[in-house]
Each structure stands twice: as structure tokens, then as C-alpha cells.
Design goal:
single chain, alpha/beta, binds 6-O-phosphono-beta-D-fructofuranose, monosaccharide binding, six-stranded mixed sheet
């Protein structure tokens, strides 16, 4: 096969191949000795303001070695649960506490139920009696206080009690940082407990207890994942090939990175990388916007303002077959354990090149605070500008859904703009609405991202508020069929979901960003309408 691209570096089982000219970034990282400094956990690299946080957030560079200690106890716990007929894993967690388990689960075909939602329908679907009887619930939260995770845990506890499972505490496995409220609860009620390394932030925690506990309980060979990372780690200070350095320079090279699976064995890494990149690099009015694509060459993959990346599990390092013209801008090939470490390193290097602290997430808190306030005060009184069939239209001058979508496309027709669709719906039952991303991308030159609320609040939500202020926002909300109480809370899941959507609207509107909200008074009919209205637009 001829060499279609400019640069390829391969080491430790992983290869990065790119045609983008990243020599300046790579040279800078190498001459300034950044790989060795990151490997040595030098907290000064991202500037004086970042130093304090960085000094307690660099454990991920080598903590996977200690993760080997998890292998035996998790195998034992899995066997004990299996003896009791418990063979299904549900995971309560948000952002870094759920995205790595999800990509491991999808890649290995494990079938974990990942509940990173507040949609009552999506939660209720997990609470059927037959399923509860065979389910162990992993509750993962570093802080131990994330409202979605806490609410999901309460929902499961009530459901276990409701079907007469008296020893429900033993159905919970808690993963958290030392001294959190969750640790205290585990000890008080006698649930299983795995403490994580507190020197690793959520989005860098793939190879710690957060990524490994739920997946090992579902049958993943976590020793293999750790070995893959360990093999790759031999390259990180190397004088020779150092693929993560090339990837870091690629991430820093252009305002947007689009990411797709190449179909060779790794499934859904883009969703995990999206959080890593958006929360790490989308701040101070700058950073790289990650866009997760439905597949190779999906609409919006390419453009002068973006790099198009594919991720694969092939060990040859060569891109998936195709002509040079069809080649992505960068191809990252290697096993999943190595991918995690490579993308984490690359993000830290990109933060250095762009001049951004990759370990904080200053703008995530704002929407959280708004949600808290709205839960206490009540939702704002908003009236739709128009109603078109099963869709109420807010924040637009249009009287029809097609008109509102057209307005979004017009707003996005400006230098540096991007469109973010944020759907506070059930990502399993309402999944077909996600085709809107590709439909919008076909009709605009701007990058288009898709986010399920509230999951994206822990990912691209940081970029929306902290990155370049060029976002054009489409929020989709929907009527709830059956609501679900949250024990010992004054709000329900539907109330929490609505407050999260309203809180984020306020955060975006306070920045003067265009935001259209389409509320589906009947979800299925409304989704149908959105899909058809988009087709009407040229
Ligand atoms: O693990 P926790 O503390 O529940 O946090 C979940 C997620 O929320 C954030 O802190 C903020 O979005 C993420 O960085 C993190 O992965």
C-alpha cells in the first residue's frame, strides 16, 4: 500500500498517522521536553494558575499499574454475584464516571446499562422486577455528590425495596474517592466499596476503578486493558516514535476535531474522547471543539477548520482501506487500553500548546448552580412563540418547525460558528431524533455536535460556555409520560430534567448566544415532525 499521509509514528502497539502538518507543534513539544515532564508529573507546565489543580491531577500518567490490584477482588465479587443469579450490571454515573465504562462495554459487547440520564422513561426502563432481580448497581462518583448519580441511586434503592429485595445494600457497588459521602454511605449500609485514586480527575479516570469496576463485573478482561496501557506507556518519554505527541499536536492544530470509529474493533471511543477534549480544552474563550460522528465520512467530517480523525483497533497502524483522497486527516490505531492513555496524554500536550489548563472545568458549575436555584424557586414562566403540531417553538421568530430549523442554519452561517443540538430526551427510546445531527450537518458548513442532556453538560457543556463564543444552540425537550419520584428529595426526575434544561438555557442566554428550544408535546410525533421538517429544507 502506498503511503497516503505525511507522518506516522508507532510505538507500544499504537500508531498515529496524519497528513496534517503538525511539525511545529511536535517540535515544540519535543524540544521543550514536554513528554518527559508530563511523565514526571510536572505540575508547572500549564502556568502558575493551573499549578495547584495540576499538582493533584496527574496520577493518571501511571496509576493504571496500581489498577492491577483490582483484578482479583473484582473477579471474586463477580463470581459471588453470579452464584446468586446476579449477572447484569447497571451503572449510575455521569461524565468521566460513565463514559469509559461505556466504550469498554460497547467495544467488548458486554451490555452494561449506562444510566447517565435524568429522563424518567430511561430510568424506569431499568427498574422492571425481572431485571432488578439479576442486577448489581454500580454507583460511580468521585465527588460522591453529583445530583444525577445520587438521584439514580435513590431510584434503584426504592425499586429494590419495592420488589422485596431486603438486602438491597449488597446490590450496590460504590466507586468513589476517599472521604466522600458515598464512602460513608457504603460503610454505613454495608455496600461493596472500591476507592479510587484521588489524584486522577474524572475524565482521565478510564484506567482506574471508575473505568474498571463496572466493566470487570460485567466480564471485561481488565488485566488485558491495563497491559495494553502499560505496553504503550513505554513510548511516552521515548526519543524515538511517540504517537501521543503527534496526536496532541493534531488536536491543537485546528478549532475543531471530528471523530469516528473506523469499524475495526473499537466502538464509541469518540463519546469518551469528546468529554476529555471538551472539558479539558474548552475554556478561556479558546480550545478545540470535539464532534462525534456517526461513522466514517459522516456529514460534516471534513472542513478547513477541522481535523477529521478515525479510531480503530487494528494493530498494523495503517488506516482503514480506501483511496488517499478518502483518507481521514488523522488515524489512531491500537488497542483500547493504549488508546485511553494516548488520548489523555495528547489532551494534556494540546493544553500545553494552546495555553489552557486541562484539569479544571470552570464553566460546568454555572449550569449546576442554575439548576439548583430553579429547583428551589420553580421554573421560569415561558410561553411558546408558536405551536406547530406536536412541537412548541421557543426562542425563535418562526411559526413552523422548518422555519425554526432554517433560522438556526442562518445563524450558523458566520465565521467560526458551530451548531450544538442538546436533546433532553430518552437516548434509548428516542434515539431516532439523533439523525438531526447529520441532517443539519448536510445543510451547513459549520460543525454540528449532538448531545443528550444532561450527559453533555459534563462534556461539551463546558465548551459551550467556556470555549469560543460562537455556538448556535438547539435545545429539544419533551413531555414526560410517567414521572418517577426521587426518595427524600423535593423534586422528581422530570422536575430535575426540566430544571437542568432551563438552567443551561439561562447560562447560554446570559452570554447572548442564539438558542431555539423545541418542546415535543408528544415525543414520537414531534420527532417525526423534526425529521420531516429538516428534509423540507434545501
Ligand atoms: O464523578 P463525579 O464527581 O460524580 O463527577 C461526574 C462528572 O462531573 C464533572 O465533574 C463535571 O462535569 C466531570 O468532570 C465528571 O466526570
Amino acid at each position: 500500500m502506498s503511503e497516503p499521509m505525511g507522518k506516522m509514528e508507532a510505538a507500544g502497539g499504537l500508531a498515529v498517522t496524519t497528513g496534517v502538518d503538525v511539525n511545529a507543534g511536535v517540535d515544540r513539544l519535543r524540544t521543550e521536553g514536554i513528554p518527559a515532564k508530563v511523565a514526571a508529573k510536572d505540575a508547572t507546565l500549564w502556568g502558575p494558575e493551573a499549578e495547584e489543580e495540576a499538582s493533584i491531577r496527574l496520577g493518571w500518567v501511571d496509576t493504571f499499574v496500581q489498577s492491577k490490584e483490582l483484578v482479583a477482588p473484582l473477579a471474586k465479587l463477580r463470581a459471588e454475584l453470579a452464584e446468586q443469579g446476579i449477572d447484569h450490571v447497571a451503572l449510575c454515573g455521569m461524565g468521566g464516571s460513565s463514559l469509559a465504562p461505556e466504550v469498554i462495554s460497547r467495544t467488548l459487547g458486554l451490555g452494561i446499562s449506562v444510566l447517565d440520564s435524568t429522563d424518567p422513561g430511561q430510568i424506569l426502563a431499568e427498574l422492571g422486577e425481572a431485571s432488578l432481580r439479576r442486577t448489581v448497581v454500580v454507583v460511580s462518583s468521585k465527588s460522591g455528590s453529583t445530583v444525577e448519580t445520587d438521584s439514580q441511586r435513590r431510584g434503584f434503592e426504592a425499586a429494590f425495596k419495592g420488589v422485596g429485595i431486603e438486602d438491597y445494600a449488597k446490590r450496590f457497588v460504590f466507586v468513589t474517592d476517599p472521604d466522600s459521602e458515598l464512602e460513608k454511605l457504603a460503610n454505613a449500609q454495608g455496600s461493596h466499596l472500591f476507592l479510587a485514586d484521588a489524584t486522577v480527575g474524572g475524565r482521565y479516570s478510564a484506567l482506574t476503578a471508575f473505568g474498571l469496576v463496572p466493566t470487570a463485573l460485567a466480564g471485561a478482561d481488565i488485566a488485558e486493558l491495563i497491559d495494553q496501557a502499560e505496553e504503550f506507556a513505554t513510548s511516552i518519554t521515548s526519543e524515538g516514535d511517540n504517537p501521543a505527541v503527534v496526536l496532541g499536536a493534531v488536536i491543537a492544530a485546528r478549532p475543531t476535531i471530528t471523530i469516528a470509529d473506523d469499524g475495526t474493533g473499537i466502538v464509541g471511543l469518540g463519546d469518551w474522547a469528546e468529554q476529555l477534549i471538551a472539558e479539558s480544552l474548552g475554556k478561556d474563550g479558546k480550545g478545540t471543539l470535539p464532534v462525534v460522528l456517526e461513522g466514517p465520512a459522516a456529514p460534516g467530517a471534513r472542513g478547513a477548520d477541522r481535523v477529521y480523525a478515525t479510531v480503530g483497533g487494528s494493530s498494523t497502524g495503517l488506516p482503514a482501506s480506501g483511496s488517499a483522497l478518502a483518507m481521514p486527516d488523522v488515524v489512531v490505531n491500537g488497542p483500547l487500553g493504549a488508546q485511553f492513555l494516548a488520548w489523555e496524554l495528547a489532551t494534556a500536550y494540546a493544553g500545553y500548546l494552546i495555553g489552557i489548563d486541562p484539569f479544571n472545568q470552570p464553566n460546568v458549575t454555572e449550569s449546576k448552580e442554575n439548576t439548583k436555584r430553579l429547583l428551589a424557586e420553580g421554573l421560569p414562566d415561558e410561553r411558546p412563540h408558536a405551536v406547530d403540531g406536536a412541537v412548541e417553538i421557543y426562542g425563535s421568530h418562526a411559526d413552523t418547525v422548518a422555519g425554526a430549523l432554517g433560522e438556526i442554519l442562518t445563524d450558523a452561517d458566520s465565521e467560526g460558528a458551530y451548531i450544538a443540538v442538546m436533546a433532553y430526551l430518552d437516548r434509548i427510546d428516542d434515539a431516532e431524533v439523533a439523525q438531526l445531527r447529520a441532517g443539519l450537518a448536510e445543510r451547513t458548513g459549520a460543525p454540528v455536535t449532538w448531545g443528550w442532556g444532561p450527559r453533555f453538560l459534563h462534556s461539551t457543556g463546558q465548551f459551550h460556555k467556556g470555549g469560543r463564543q460562537t455556538g448556535v444552540f438547539l435545545q429539544i425537550t419533551g413531555e414526560v409520560g410517567e414521572d418517577l419520584l426521587i426518595p427524600d428529595r423535593e423534586f422528581t426526575f422530570a422536575g430535575l430534567q426540566a430544571a437542568q434544561a432551563a438552567g443551561d438555557r439561562q447560562a447560554l442566554q446570559s452570554r447572548g448566544r442564539p438558542l431555539v428550544r423545541l418542546h415535543l408535546t408528544d415525543r414520537k410525533r414531534g420527532i417525526n415532525q423534526l425529521v420531516h421538517a429538516l428534509r423540507e429544507l434545501s
